[in-house]
Amino acid sequence: MIDKTDGGILITRIKQLQGRIFEKLLAAHNISEFNGAQGRILFVLWEKDDISISDLARKTGLAKTTLTSMLDRMENRELIERVYSPSDRRTVKIQLTEKALGLREHYEQVSDEMNQIFYKGFSDEEIRSLETGLRKVLENLTKKEDHTNGNESD
Q: How far apart are CA 89 and CA 65, in angstroms?
């Protein structure tokens, strides 16, 4: 392996810049119902609604404690609702409201604009290569976290 790498710091800087730009794009599109971080939750739910908090945490990469407080704010803004199982009140599913469903098209416009910024000057092959590498990094980190939590071995 190379002695000195910059992957971690580059990913951190990209995430910070992306977050600031995404917030500005939301504002430019007059989207005030949710912020960028809540948009990530909505995106997952738009793909598959009616999922558990555990599944939502896994798909968004957010810690359950962070996710719970974000869901509280989103519920107060009438974007999601918690639906309790009639047979077991400990089982909770997260569902989108009609209000949130109506925001999807606007979010997708912002997301498309963000993708244009992300991949400006990239060929399709370069995009595929970058995303393949990032998926490997994510997989490595996920395995390490699972191992650290006692869920899996290396």
A: 19
